[in-house]
Structure formats: C-alpha cells, structure tokens
Request: fold
Amino acid sequence: MDKKEFKKKFKRRLAEKFAMEVTDASSNELYQTLGSLMTSAYSQDWRETWKDYRENNQKQSYYFSIEFLPGKMLKSNLLNMGWLELVEEGLDELGIQLNDLVEIEPDMALGNGGLGRLASCFMDSIASCGLPGNGNGIRYEYGLFKQRFVDNYQVELPDEWLQKGNLWEVRKESKAVDVQIGGNVYLKPDQYGKLSPVYEGGSKLRAVPYDTGMVGYQNKIVNTMRLWSLEIPPEEEDRYRSIEARRSFEDLTSVLYPDDSNEAGRKMRLTQEYFFVSAGVQSILRYFKSLNQPMDEINQYAAIHINDTHPAMCVAEFMRLLVDEEQMSWERAWDLTRKVMSYTNHTIMAEALEKWSIDMMKNVCPRIYQIIEEIDRRFVEELIGVQDFDLIQRTRIIQDGQVHMAHLAIIGSHSTNGVAKLHSDLLKSVVLHDFYLLYPDRFNNKTNGIAMRRWVQLANPAMSKVLDATIGKTWRKNSDDLRLLLNYEEDDQVLNALAEAKYQNKRSLAAYIKSHCGIEVSPEAIFDVQIKRLHAYKRQLLNLLHIIKLYLDLKENPELPIEPRVFIFGAKAAPSYHYAKSIIKVINEVASLINADETIKGKLKLVFLENYNVSLAERIIPAADVSEQISLASKEASGTSNMKLMLNGAVTIATLDGANVEIRDAVGDDNIAIFGLTEGEVYQYYEKRNYHAIDLYERDTTIQKVVNALIDGTIPNITKEGQEIFDSLIKYNDEFFVLRDFEDYCAAQMSVNQAYQDTRRWRQISLRNTANAGRFSSDRTVQQYADDIWQIEPLFAHNDNRGVTQH
Ligand code: 475
Reply:
C-alpha cells in the first residue's frame, strides 16, 4: 500500500463507518477508523497464520499468565505491520496528527508490573520471531487502578478501560467453554470398577474468549492472545435474577488484584485462577482433538507455560481432562502432563509464594483438590525410603492444611526457570534447594528481556534516527548489531548527535512535567529516574534519604559543587500496602518542600509523576540520564526497567541484584556505578543475625541527621508517616538494610555526579550502555524458551510469499 492509497482507503472507511469527512470527525472517530483499517488488513495474515499452524501440525506454546500489560497497541501494530511512516505521513497530509489519535487509546493495563509487562514483551517477540505461541489470560473489566495524588496521598480510581470499546479484540462466542465451580464431587465406580467423578451442586461459569492479534514485526505472522471473559450460561440465567446475585457473579473476573509480589489469598482470586486455567486448558484440548492425532502424542503439539504460580492448577486441570474426560490411565496422563508443562519463578519474596488452604480449594474446585491430593500422595509414595524423610516433608505439595502452588508447578512440570542468572542460582542454592536436590535437570535460567521495538523504535524515535544514520538499520531486526555503535565511541559527531537526541527527549519530558505537575525543571539538569512498583525491598526509601541529604547539604552550603539534578519517581503502591503508601506521601511532601525552596537555586528538583504505567514509561525512559536499580541484593529477581533504561543510554546506579549483575558484565565496571551489600553478605547477616541498624544510627552523624529529618519537623505534614518510616529503620531494625547501604550509595551518587561533569566521558558511557543492551532483547529470551523448554519452531513459508523473518 502506498500513501495515496492509504489516504483514499482512510477517507472511504471514515465515510462507511461514520458517514463523515475528515474535517467533521473527532479524534476518537479518526482513531476508530484507523484501527478498523488496520485490523481488517492484518486479519488475513491472522487467519493464515492460524491455518498454517493447523495444516502443518505445528507444535504451539501457550503462555498462561494471570496478567498481561501491553499498554497501547496502535503504534506498535503500525510499526510491526510496516505502516508506521506511511500512516504518519498520510494522516499528516489529511491534517491529522497520529499522536493525537494515540492519545485516544487507553492503556491496556491488565497487569501490575514486571511480571505482566514481561508477558507482553514475550507476546511481541514470539510473533516477531515467527514462533507459534499464544497468550492465555483473563479479560478483566477493570485494569490496574488509576493513581491520583490528593494532599500528597495516593488515592485509587477505577480503570474503566473498556468504556469506549476495544478495537483490537474479537469476541469468539463459538469457542466458549464452561467451567465448573464449587459443589461436591464424589467418586463412583463404573461397571468395570473404574472410579469416575460425580458432581453435585456447584455452578457453571461460561468462559468466552476475546482474541487479540499479536502482530509480528514485518513477517506476516499474527499470533493470538486469548483473554477469557465470564458470562452467565443461558441455562443458569434463573439463578441470577436478582441484581446482587448478578453483581457478585460478574465481580469474579471484573478486577485485577492490585498486589504486586504479594499473595492476597482471597477466594475470588482462586476462582479467577481456576477460571482461566480451566478455560485455557479445555480449549487447547478441544483444538488438539480436532487434529485427530493420538492423545498420547499431545506433548508434540502443545507446550503449556505456567507464568509464576498463579496458573499452577494447569497441572491438575490437564490431569483431570486426560483422566476423567479422556479415560487415560493416571500414569500415562502424568507422564504427558510433565512433558507439556513448564514453570517460571519470578520472585523469592516469601509473601509472594502462593499457598491456598485446603478448605478454600475444596470449596472452589473440589475435583482439582482431589487430583492434587493424589499427585501429592504418589509423590510421597515414590520417594519414601529413597529420599530423606524431612526432605519429602518439606517438598510435598500439601503441608499443614495448605496447598503449596510452587511445589505443584515444579513437581508437575519438566522445567523450572528463574529470570536472571543470579536469581536462578539462588533458586538452586536457597529458595528451591530441596527441589534442586530432587530434580537437578529441571532447573535452568532464562534471563529476562524487553521488546526492543517498543522501547527504542517507538519510545525513542530521536535516538533511533541517530542509530540508523550511524550504524545502518539492521539493529531494528537484530539488536546485537547495536554493538556496532562501539566503533563510534571516539566520534564526537556521533556522541553529540546522541546527546542531542537525549536533550530533545528531556525537553519533552520537562514539558510534560510542567503541564501535569506545574513544576519547572531544566533539561540541562541530570534526570535521575526510579520507576517501578513501590516496595520496601526496591528501596525507594534509600533514594529518598539521599535526596534529603543533598537538600540538607545544600541548605548548609548553597554553593555545593553538584550538578543540578531532577529526581523523578513513578510508582504505584498496592492499595492495602500501608507502608508503601506512607513512602509515597513522604516523597511527595519532600518534593513540595524542595521544589518551593528558592534558596537552593533550582539545583534540586523532585518530581513524583502520577499514575505510572506503560505509556508514561515510554515518555520517561528516553529522557533518563541515570537509572536507579537499588533493590537489596538477592531480592529483585531480575528487573526489566534496568534494561529499558540502559538501552536508552541511561547510566545505572545499581546493587548487584537480579539482572543488574548481567548489565554490569555487559558494560564493564567503568560504565556503571555499583554499590552496596552483595547477596552473599546479605545472607551472612541473616545467618549471623548481627545487623543492628540502631548502631549505625548512633554512630553515623550523617545518617542521624537525615533520618531525624523524618521526625523533627524538617519535612511538614508527615507526623504519622515520618514516624512510621523512622520506626521501620530504627525500632524494627531496617529489614532491607537501607542504612547499611546508605554511605556506599552516597559515594556511588557522588561518582555519578563527577562523571557527568566530564561531558565527553559521560556521553561515551551512555553510548556504551546503548551499544551493549542488545543481549537484553526479549527476542533472545523467547528464542531460548522455544529451543530449551517449549521445543517449538518457527513456521516456514510453504506457499506464496508468507516468508518468516529469521532473527
Ligand atoms: C520481579 N508479580 C522482577 C519480573 O520476571 C522481574 C503479581 C501478582 C501477584 C504476585 N506477584 C506478582 C510479581 O511477582 C512480579 O512482577 N515479579 C517481577 O517479575 C519479570 O523482572 O524482578 O519482581
């Protein structure tokens, strides 16, 4: 399609859909028109991709995730379709700004943070690598809450993302399945004495899939992200006549649980989990049966991936369908289940390790509980006398009245992976050590990655242009080619061009900050960024204490030779996470104090941007000079904002945690500021129980001064919150070693300050960060999953020109 044709089609579609001309149409009508042109254009490829998989009996992977966090899809789809430039120019000629239409699309925010965003980066990469893989999740009516600040406190508003409809989804009524919830199940012998389940009571839920095309990068592949929506089956209408009954039914899948890395343990959450697990597994089996292949070979057609433990019931549901519905023997079914399933662990935080009480599970999915009980019984039976008794007790699925979901996922699958080298090592040596003893071959690492297309090509067109002009365009397909940039680290023209692109991005972020927060910030200042969920272990508090220190130092000596700095935060706190909300309040109050204080001559600014989400990340990241990755070593499984920021040329201040370790290896010690305890030192403290925060506080006058500012009235309006945080450090012994790492952190900050003063050197460091980021592409990550875990291959062209781009 050329520009002329696009304009013609666009005008025609607008006339057909709305009976309008461009000049009369609203942005929303124009957006709908463009979207409809796009979906009808890729639908053909979508159908053909699907047909090709089917006709080739292609093995497919199914990524089960309770969260997906795609953000906006308009530009990403345009880019992957190869339409971006053409549409941008064509619209411009019609007097329409593409970016105005982009604003219309709500962020699709069916996830909390890292885990959900990773799932969406994978969806983009799986399609872009031409791999046959699908997503399976929940179509929440409300996405992650919208964050507003009122009196500097976080308040949460509902995210009604579907209000204006959703362009990209297709409701597939014909593919609906029913999910049985609750009731009683007992086993009854049939005429041959085989036990089959008989269900009594309970209710049937109708699961209706909404499919969204996952468009591959200029390769004609369109995969499917399938999200299940809950409906009342027509035959059950009578039970839901009253408004309350209807409401409580519909509530089941209407909201995403807003806790990141925390297990809420509510019955509704368990229902959500079983709902999308059962619907997804049923639909995989139904598809497989339509292929008329022997059931025994299903592992050659399907790989089911369990993204964290939330979908761990896939193991039991798959067993249920094979044993109860397909009459397969337990042993054969179990062998297949383990071959089909694989599992990723995303966190070592104890409070995130999912456990369900037996009672609740019996209540929500009684048959699944029976099957888990049998898996557990056989697990113990097999190991007794072979393995140490205590080891068996520690690894069994059911313990102390609770079902341990990670145990189910590990025992019922052939692969368990962590998400960065350090994390995978910790799984083997500490967190899942017992399982490593039992199944050493199942453990492996798959370091996370990010969708380079979104995080450079879309988010940072200014830098992308410089890259094209410097190293050619191959980096757009093969991110390892970013390394070619290293040839230019002494080339002032390139260094300046990259710096100019950064400056441009900083100017537009400064404009956003001005219009959204009313705060004036200078694009000449260092933009220092920490963007991630608010969590004690991520240590936004450490960042804040350093800011308070700088402020107090500047108050004492306004001539202090520091580079002007703008500290930028973006973070949501779980609504029930009281401590995290207190941190937000205090950061906001410190911001009010600092930003209004003229005596420090604008050397310091603090901006907490409201409602951090994927779209805001796309604005902040290209403008960042410094990336804060300061979690307590051993706590952050991987991190992915660290990768996005380095890719966009930010210099990282980091602890040796998660993927920071691999970022350090990629750029070398001179191009990153490492500080703080190592994971080994943290474990030493745990073992010896010899950390005493109060000693540090009493000994170190700087720490005293800074920490006292929380309670001595220096910062207004934080009487309660300041005390709470003060107590967490002093009275409750600083669980995350903030004070222990404080001095080292300040030194690292100082070294960054100095490096920035040498402009040329800073630009070189920045260039080296971008140049070495290629390995963190999620294209690489999903290819490793495909090769090592799922054993799936790209579809090769067998007719016409449906070629597949190889990476
Ligand atoms: C890690 N979320 C990051 C990222 O691997 C890592 C959501 C609901 C309930 C419980 N937990 C969650 C997470 O655990 C999560 O997002 N984990 C994150 O996964 C991708 O990069 O280090 O914290």
Summary: The pocket of 475 is lined by residues 112-115, 118, 259-262, 346-347, 352, 419, 448, 636-640, 658 (CB under 6 Å).
